[in-house]
Here is the input.
Amino acid sequence: MSIQLYNTLSQKKEVFTPINPDEVTMYVCGPTVYNFVHIGNARPVVIFDTLFRLLQRHYPSVKYARNITDVDDKINAAAKANGETIRELSERYALAYHEDMGQLNTLPPTLEPRATDNIDAMIEQIQALIDHGHAYESEGHVLFQVSTDKEYGKLSHRKLDEMIAGASERVDEASYKKEPADFVLWKPSTDDLPGWDSPWGRGRPGWHIECSAMINKHLAKTIDIHGGGQDLIFPHHENEIAQGTCCHNEGEEQFVRYWMHNGYLNIDGEKMSKSLGNFFTVRELLELWPGEVIRYALLTAHYRKPLDWTKDLLASAKASLDRLYGALRDAPLDLDDSVEHPMLSELESHLCDDLSTPQVLAVLHALAGEINKADGNAKVQLQKVLRKAGDFVGLLNQDADAWFKWQPAGQQGGLSDGDIDALIAERAQAKKDKNFARADQIRAELKDQGIILEDSPEGTRWTRD
Ligand SMILES: [Zn+2]
Here is the structure.
C-alpha cells in the first residue's frame, strides 16, 4: 500500500517515495517556549504524530525531529521581566509542553534539538551563505539577500518582484538592509540580552536560520518531509528553503522533498488571536476534558481543512469516545499486533490517502458497531482489532472503566472512586438483605452526584456523567 501526501510545493497529491527507505526523515517546526502552548499549536503536533505512526508501520526507521525554539525576542522579554535566564524560563515551558502533548497521546519525536544548543551550526550556515554570495553583513547584522535566490517564492507560489513590492509597503526599510525583502540571519545583542560570539560580533540568530541549520546538522542536506502549520509557509518555510539550498553549491541539493501544512484552527468561526480573547491553552482545556477528547476533536477534520473549534465539537468528541470505549468494556488493555481484519486494511488505506482521518474515525465506529453485535470469542477478537485500529491514530489506549470514571480536574473534590465503590458494595449488600429501599436510595444519591450505575452480569459498573 503506497502512501500519498499532498505536497505544498507541487500543489498536488504525490506518491511518497523516501530518498532512503531504510531511514525516512521528517522535521516539524516546534514550539517557542515562553508560555503554555495554545490549541492551535497542538494541531500540527497531533497531525504529524499520526503521520509518524503511519510511517513507522511502513518503514523500518523514521527519524523525526521537532525543534524547540529557546531564544527569541518574546522569550528574552519574558525572562527579563521575570528576572531569570532564558534557559530557566524555556526549561520550564518545554517541560509543560511535553506534559501537555503527552496528554494528547503524542509520541516523543526521535530528536528534539534546541536552538541554543546549535548556535555553531547556525553560524556555519550563515557563513556559507555569505561565502556563496547570498548574504551580507551590515551594521552588526547579517541579512539574506532575497534577490540573489532565483527560486525564492516557489513554496508560497508568490513572485519575487511582487513580494519585494509588498515587503516595502509592510516592513520598515531598515537602514542596514540593501533591499526591503531581505531577512535577518543574525542580529547584534546589547549587553542585557542573550548573545553568542560570532564572526560578526556578539549577537543572536534570526528565527528562520535555526530550522535549516538543525535540519542539515541533525538529519541531512535533503530530507523527506517537512511539516508545520499553514501560517508558516510564508515567510518562515520560504526562508528555510532559501537558506537550506543556497548554503550549498548552486543546484546541488534539494532541501525538502515533501512540504506538508495543516489548516488553521478557528475558534467559534473566528481566527484565534489574543486580541479577540478567544485564545485557549491546551492546559486550560485539559482542566475540562480528557486529553484523548482533544486529540479526537483535532482528528475530526482533514488536516488541510480549517477546523472550527467549539464546545459542541468537544462534547461530540467525548460522546464518540464514550461509544467506542463502550465497545471496549472488559477488553484486554494489551495490544495484539498479530490480529488482522479487513477493516484494519480499510482504515490504513484512508491514512495512506493523505491522512484522511475523518474516514478513519468512521471505520472505528463501524468496528464498534460490529463489536456490539458480537459475543463470545468473536467479540474478544473484534475488540483486539479495535484496540489496534485505535493505536494507528493514537486513540483507545486506556482501560474502558478508567475512561468512564474520568472527572474534570476543576470538579474534583466530590465523591472519590473509593467512596463510590464503597456505596456500590453497600447497595449490593442491601439488595442481598432485601432492603430494596436502601438500595434505591443509594442509587438516587449517586445519581445526584452525577454517578450513573449500570448493573451487568459482571457486576455493577459506574460512569461519571
Ligand atoms: Zn521552522
Q: What stands out?
A: The chain has a mean pLDDT of 93. The CA atoms of residues 19 and 224 lie 7 Å apart. The first helix runs from residue 39 to 58. DSSP finds 16 helices and 15 strands in the chain.
